[in-house]
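Our preliminary data section would be incomplete without showing what the modeling component actually yields. Below, a chain of 199 amino acids is followed by its predicted structure, encoded as tokens that our downstream tools consume directly.
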Amino acid sequence: MNAQSPALAAAVWPVEGRNAWLKAVLLIAAGSILLTVSAKLKVPFWPVPITMQTFAVLLIGLAYGWKLGSATVLAYLAQGLAGLPVFTNPGAGPAYLLGPTGGYLVGFVLAAAAVGWLAERGWDRRVVTIIPALLFGIVLIYVPGVIWLHQFLLAGDPTATFGTAFSLGATPFLLGDALKLCLAAALLPTAWWLIGRRG
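Predicted structure:
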């Protein structure tokens, strides 16, 4: 699984030839719309409602590959930076990206690039390899997210600990993300299996 292979989107709809740029733009636009919708969609869950945004980030990275996947997340962030209401909570612009969730948004780019790179090496084709790829992607979202949140908390309370940041910014979401991981782990290998049958 070291040799590079096409990501799912490239296998279904190759981004090459004279119209490669147009296909890439359409895929980026579709991905950024998916990210916006997934950010606004809140599913009732315990201990907190969950959005499907982490799932969308990982799915885009796996399906698009690392270049197109990270470009899609960057385009989504650029829309929010420009003031469009694309994020989960109300607000947009530079202030939102510098707020308490800014680290998670940075993590979205890292996760999409990482899982996309692994997908291009076949890690998304079997459950036994996609699960560690997805876990790595989730870690890349949480690490900058919790570190950033800790710094944000310290600005208001110098005694705030990293444990407090973790309990606020990670613990309530772990179960929901585990379920989203299972969904992605089932979806991608199934999609590849269907492509194989069609081929």
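The chain has one domain: 8-198. The radius of gyration is 17 Å. Preliminary results of this kind motivate Aim 1 of the renewal.
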